[in-house]
Request: fold
Amino acid sequence: MEWADLFLLNPTILYQMLAFPFAVLFHYLCSFGYLSPSARYVVLLVGGFLIACAAMGLYALLLFIPALCSVAIFHSVSPLRVHTWVFVFQMSWQTLCHLGLHYREHYLQEAPCIRLSIALSSLMLLTQKVTSLALDIHEGTVTVTFEHRRRKEPLLGALPFCSYLLFFPALLGGPLCSFKRFQAQILCSSLPYFTQSLWVAGQKSLWALTLQLLRLAMRGHEGTLTSLAYCTRFGCVYVVWISALLFRLAYYSHWALDESLLNAAGFGLALGHDPTHGDLSGTAMWTLETTHRIALFTRTWNRSTAQWLRRLIFQRSPTQPLLATFTFSAWWHGLHPGQVFGFMCWAVMVEADYRIHPFLSNLTKSWCTRLLYKALTWVLTQLVIAYIMVAVEMRSFSALWLLCTSYISFFPLLYCISLLLLAKRATQK
Reply:
C-alpha cells in the first residue's frame, strides 16, 4: 500500500515514468543519426498525442484545440500582433476551462476528476510555451516563413510548431524549453552527451525517488490541513509549517522527475554547455531552504516559470509590475479563493522584504547581530512562505478562513505592519 501511495497517488508521476524508456530510445536514435529532423518532429508529436490520450482521455481535446489554433494564428497574423492574439486566445480558453472546473467542483459538488486535472495542468504548461513562442516571433528571434504555404505544404510548415507545443517529454511537466533550443536540438545532426545525459537523468530520478520516500516517511508525523479545524494557538503554526514542507517536497520531486525526463530525451542539456548543469539543481533547492529573503525565494522558486512571468508580465508592465505579475499568476493558476489570496499576500510580502532587509542590515554592525538577524529572518521567511503555500492550496472560503484566523497569520501580518511603517518613514524623509 505504501508503494502504491508513493507512485499512484499522483498519476502524472506514473505517466512520466512510463514515458521514460521511450525518451531514452528517442535520444539514442537521434544521437546516432537514425532519425531525420522531420522524423524527430513526428515522433515527438505522436508521442505527445498518445500520452495525452492515455492520461487525459477525451479531455485531451482541451489541449489539442488551443495548440492547433495557436499554430494557425502563428501562420496567419503579422509578427507585430501575434503575441496579443495568442495571449488573448490562450488565456481566454484556459480561463473557460478553469471556470468549468470551478462549476463542477463548487456548484455541482462533483468529485475531482483526475483526467481533467491533468489536462488543465498540461494546458497551463501549453500556455507557457505558446506565449513564449509568440514573444519570440514578436521580437523577431523566431521567424515564421511561408515557403511551405507557397509550395502547398502547409502541414510541413506547421509541423515544428505542433511538435514543440505537444512534444511528449514536456507535455505533463518540466521546465520551459524555448523553441530556439528545441529546434536546435532537433536540427542537430547528432545529439551530444548521450551517456552524460543518461547519467544526469538517472541522478535526478534517484533524487526524485529520495524526496518521495522522505515525504512518505514524514506523512506519519504530519498534521494535515484538516487539522486546522482542531488545532489551537501555536499548534496551528506547526500544522501549517509541516504541511507546507510536504508540499515543497512534492514539488521538488516532481521537478526533478520532469527534468530527468527531458535529459533522457536529450532536451535537458543545451548544446555546447556543461552536461552536469540543468534547469533544476540541488543548489536551487539549497537556496530555497536556506535563504532568509522572501524575494530571493520568489525568484528561485520554480525558476523556469519565474523567468517566464518576468518576461511576459513584469518587464512589460508600465506600472506596478510586481502586483501585475502576481495578479496574472493567480489568474494563470486558476483563480481559486486561496490562489487569489495567496498570490496577493505573496506580492505584499515581497514588497515588504525589499524594504525590511535594507533597514535591518543598517542596524547590524557586529557579526553577532548579523547572525541573529539572519537566523530570525530565516525563521520568519520559512513561516511566511509556509503560510502562502498552504493558502494557495486552499480550494474553499471556509478552509481559507481557518488559515486566516490561526496563529500563523501573525507572521505575514508582522510583515504588513513593517511595510506600512517603513513606507511612511520613507515618505517623511
